[in-house]
Amino acid sequence: MTEHYYSQRPSVASDERKIRVDVRGVSIDLVTDRGVFAKGGLDEATRRLIETVDLTGATSALDLGAGYGVVTAVLGRAYPLVEWTLIDINERAIDLAIRNTAGLAKKPIAIVHDGIPEEMDSVYDHVLLNPPIRAGKAVIYRLYEESHRALRHGGKLWIVIQKKHGAPSTFEELQRHYGSVETVYKKSGYFIFCAEKD
């Protein structure tokens, strides 16, 4: 299989670059690299997720599939009281994420893992995920289940996914695990679902 961003140790040579991100009233410079997702700049799906989520009143959030940390870097400034955890399978991405979130008021926890560790049970108010489509449906659906375990009662999983990448089937899968699933955004083929743990 061709190597892609869902690899623990990218073999492609490092070639770091700086990008400028302007979203949700936050303007920051971030460092990206080859072998990580959306190395050229903020991808459209993640932009829409960042602009849509509501973390009002939250104390903890998990940036699942964090990549180089753009979600936490932005929302950590928009919601400075939230304690963030970043998880990604990609070691290079997590190294970048640690650097890109170093300026936050609360230092995030960063973990290299292909999902959510079992000891993380009922600990988060929110989980945010732009699913790793290229990893396949089995991996993605496992992340939905693991997110349910990791959420507190009443916690919410936010997912952005395009229709062509399986939004309808994702909605059905979420309904199998969560008490309520709401489509909170739908435009230009992009869907954002908010699934609440009952």
Automatic annotation (TrEMBL):
Keywords: Methyltransferase, Transferase. One of its GO terms (biological process) is methylation. It comes from Alicyclobacillus sacchari. It comes from the Bacteria. InterPro entries: RsmC/RlmG (IPR046977), SAM-dependent_MTases_sf (IPR029063), Small_mtfrase_dom (IPR007848). This is 16S rRNA m(2)G 1207 methyltransferase. GO terms for molecular function: S-adenosylmethionine-dependent methyltransferase activity. Residues 28-193 form the Methyltransferase small domain. The keyword Transferase applies. SUPFAM superfamilies: S-adenosyl-L-methionine-dependent methyltransferases.
